[in-house]
Amino acid sequence: MKTTILTSFAILAIFLSSCKQEDSPTNSGSKAATYYGHSQAFGGDSIRSWIKTDVNGDPTSIGVSFKQSAFVKIEGNDDTTYMLMLPMSSGMSMAAPFDHIEIDWSKKGDPDPPYNVAHFDVHFFCVDTNAQNMVVPGMDNLTMMMDTGYVPHGYMMMMDAEAMMGVHFMDTTDHDIPFNHTCMYGFYHGDLYFMEPMVAKTYLDSKTNFSSPIKQPTKFKKSGWYPTKYSINYSSATGLYSVSIDGLTKH
Predict the structure, then answer these.
(1) For 48-90, how does the pLDDT look when each residue is reduced to its tens digit (9 = 90+)?
(2) Is residue 207 part of a domain?
(3) In this structure, are residues 118 and 200 in contact, taking their beta carbons and an 8 Å threshold?
(4) Per-residue confidence at 177, pLDDT binned at 50, 70, 90?
């Protein structure tokens, strides 16, 4: 979640215009590859998005990676938002319905426990930036009245819509106290707008690799590739953290 609101659309436009959609396979002779988005400044270093594909060229994972050194510089800053476009092919996302990623650093956390600790939110948006910009805060009647089949069992609506985000749904069966990590769903006007792994600073500090299933809805309104798990990893060899949604499955 993000409790502070980025009110300047001009700032957002600067972030987006600086992102070039580039396909950069690590193995150009194989359909099993990693495609990288354009690097962006992050904590004195950089951060970038990526999409992994299997031998058939189908997307399997979407994520972001950044160095430990960048994280150390970020953690002393006030709340900050970063926007990353996904790698594109023929002008379209390689892993529809996902379009772009927003990373939010919350130094003091959210007002309500257990999320009132320093943490990162990594929002994988299923709508474009124009649609995201149009989200207004307040009661969202269409989401309140939508078919419950679009929401995984055990997930509960947390609050009214947040500006430029939507209505967060939390997993009530995820009893992670003190908070380490979780994955939320976000809806607006009855449509899935984002999926959001959250990870506490203390968990990143532990450098513990983690992967967990994501509870699935029984219905999907828009066809595309949807994740069945999420992961948080650290590589001592490269000094890279990564946060990703994985096990993409076509619906």
Answers:
(1) 999 999 999 999 999 999 998 887 787 777 788 999 999 887 6
(2) yes
(3) yes
(4) confident
Alpha carbon distance 143, 109 (integer Å): 25
Question: Rg of the chain over CA atoms, in angstroms?
Answer: 17
**pLDDT at residue 113 greater than cutoff 70:** yes
User: What are the b/e assignments for 13-26, b being 16+ CB within 10 Å?
Assistant: eebeeebebeeeee
Tell me, yes or no, whether 35 lies in a domain: yes
Q: Which residues have CB under 8 Å from 93's CB, separation 6+?
A: 86, 87, 99
Residue with token string 């994520």: 63
pLDDT in tens, 14-31: 344 333 434 445 555 678
Beta-carbon contacts of residue 177 (< 8 Å; ≥ 6 apart): 113, 114
Q: What whole-number distance in Å separates Cα of residue 139 and Cα of residue 166?
A: 10
Residues 6+ apart with CB under 8 A from 40: 15, 18, 19, 46, 47, 48, 82, 84
Q: What is the pTM of this model?
A: 0.88
202: containing domain: 9-250
On whether residue 4 sits in a domain, the answer given is no
The residue with tokens 């495609």 is 35
Q: Is residue 1 part of a domain?
A: no
| C-alpha separations of 8 from 39, 133, 166 in Å | 23, 10, 18
Q: How many domains does the chain have?
A: 1
The 10 Å Cβ neighbour count of residue 63 is 23
